[in-house]
Write a structure and sequence with these properties.
Radius of gyration: 23 Å
Largest sheet: 14 strands, antiparallel
Strand order of the largest sheet: 8-7-6-5-4-3-2-1-14-13-12-11-10-9
Helix content: 10-25%
Number of strands: 25
Number of domains: 2
Number of helices: 9
């Protein structure tokens, strides 16, 4: 175990080797219909590096014969492009059911690159709607070393969802509903039967099965476009939790083209053209999503940083004084020094703290294996600051730094011992909560000069061990097991607190934000 540095110095272990910046939300712009991550991008599965994009001849499995009994399936292919490179394809089918509803199937296969690692992503989903067009059931799968499956059924007044992930026991949740939600693959069907005109706006309840984000999607009819056939198609703009995509749909509501940010788009093609991928490697997501800044002197050891964001209002960032304060157009991050941290019991004290020790989607903190590991890492510590630091050091050294994309899960990281910031954070928070230390996931931006003079999308934990405030509650302190920092330096600019259902909000900022660092000390 390393010795503590001097109290006024941040733990600068990230200088020893370049950190692996994760691409939290860097796949955010993948359009709705072909998103293998259902708009997620938040997260990551174990990377399989390949030297070139090579996709085998894969198509969807046949639909259930019962589903086809009322008519044949209609197959549609789309090519997926990123910055004008053809990086993948999507294929979908739709067919009537015997009882008058519809079955939707979709599979997306594409390749992405992060810091030199090219990874192939495959996702597939099925949704069944009733005669009234309302969702009845769905299945969704994302490939990973341990694939992630999400299954759901609309019951009387709730959505019953089961998620199998990362070797953990299946998690079952019930989400209250006022009406059946729409999924990305069924969203275009909502256009059918509507008389489209510029300016028409309508809303639908929307659910993302992997992030479990449950909110309202807004669809705006923008403008018409004449097709070569003489028919009129319409450009629609869909918005969900700040994420926007544009779709060109024909009179039947079928998507002909779809556009997101970062040069991501999908176009209707023949099967052969959709699978004719570009040679070479796809664009690097880290390079596409970073935010360049002037060199920031002393950033590694900073405990106070002031930043002025551009492109978006400063209110889009978390206002959480005294750790992060948004004042007009300026954001001030003030991280307590190690010597300022109080000496608290390891386990949570009272209801306020206990609320941040519960298990969650990425945080299997009640798993016996996780508890046993956490107890071993603490090695008898009775002081929360000491215990939180031991966990930080252990995770930093234990997890191999590997850029990944998928769904983080603390138990899977404990088994695989590799990942990027999402995995480091999920494991840290799982271990901390396993021994009663209040901890949470935070996501935002961080300055990483060892990679380049830029801010990068990043995730890190926060722990409740800060100076006691006027309200009597202990404050949150950022730590960073990816970089080995305890506390984390003050260039950690947070956008959201929370798991995947909250992190999806970051996607609406990608490609829009600029930053000016006014002070770092």
């Amino acid at each position: 175990m390393q010795q503590n540095p001097a109290p006024q110095i941040r733990h600068p272990m990230w200088r020893k080797a370049p950190p692996q910046i994760c691409y939290i939300v860097s796949m955010a712009a993948v359009p709705n219909l072909l998103t293998a991550l259902e708009g997620l991008s938040v997260v990551a599965f174990l990377a399989v590096a390949i030297s070139a994009v090579a996709v085998p001849d894969e198509v969807l499995a046949p639909l259930d014969p019962v589903a086809l009994s009322s008519g044949p399936a209609e197959e549609r292919w789309m090519g997926i492009f990123m910055s004008d490179q053809h990086v993948g394809y999507a294929v979908s089918r739709e067919a009537p059911t015997a009882e008058g509803g519809r079955v939707f199937q979709q599979q997306s296969t594409f390749s992405i690159q992060a810091m030199g690692n090219v990874q192939r992503v495959v996702a597939a989903g099925t949704a069944v709607t009733g005669p009234d067009g309302a969702l009845k059931t769905f299945d969704f799968m994302l490939t990973s070393p341990l694939p992630v499956y999400a299954r759901g059924e609309v019951q009387a007044h709730n959505l019953h969802v089961t998620v199998d992930q990362g070797g953990s026991a299946p998690e079952v949740i019930d989400i209250p509903l006022t009406e059946p939600p729409v999924l990305s693959m069924t969203l275009p069907s909502q256009v059918r039967g509507k008389v489209l005109r510029p300016g028409l706006t309508f809303t639908v309840p929307y659910f993302d099965p992997l992030t479990r984000a449950n909110a309202t999607a807004t669809v705006l009819v923008e403008s018409p476009e004449m097709l070569p056939t003489g028919e009129t198609a319409w450009w629609l703009k869909s918005s969900f939790n700040g994420v926007e995509t544009r779709q060109l749909v024909d009179p039947n509501g079928e998507v002909l083209r779809e556009e997101g940010s970062l040069g991501l788009r999908a176009e209707r093609m023949t099967r052969e053209d959709a699978m004719a991928l570009s040679n070479g490697t796809p664009p690097d997501l880290i390079a596409l999503t970073n935010i360049p800044v002037a060199p920031v002197a002393g950033a590694e050891n900073s405990h106070i940083v002031t930043i002025t964001p551009g492109g978006v209002d400063a209110s889009r960032f978390v206002n959480d004084p005294p750790l992060q304060t948004v004042d007009g157009k300026t954001i001030t991050i003030s991280v307590p020094l190690l010597a300022e941290l109080p000496h608290l019991p390891v386990a949570a004290q009272g209801a306020i703290e206990e609320a941040d020790t519960e298990p969650a989607m990425s945080i299997p903190s009640t798993d016996p294996e996780m508890i046993a590991r956490a107890v071993a890492v603490l090695d008898g510590s009775t002081d929360r600051t000491d215990a939180a630091r031991k966990i930080n050091d252990w995770v930093h050294h234990y997890v191999q730094k590997v850029p990944t994309i998928g769904i983080p899960n603390g138990l899977e990281v404990l088994h695989t011992a590799q990942g990027d910031c999402n995995e480091h954070t999920a494991l840290y928070v799982s271990l901390a909560r396993a021994v009663g230390i209040p901890a949470r996931i935070t996501a935002g931006l961080v300055y990483a000069p060892s990679i380049g003079d830029a801010f990068y999308y990043h995730a890190w934990p926060e722990v409740r061990i800060g100076p006691v405030g006027a309200d009597g509650a202990a404050g949150w302190v950022p730590v960073d097991p990816t970089f080995g920092q305890f506390p984390a330096d003050a260039t950690h600019l947070k956008i959201v607190n929370g798991d995947l259902d909250k992190q999806i909000e970051i996607m609406g900022l990608i490609g829009k934000v600029s930053l000016v660092v006014n002070e770092a000390r």
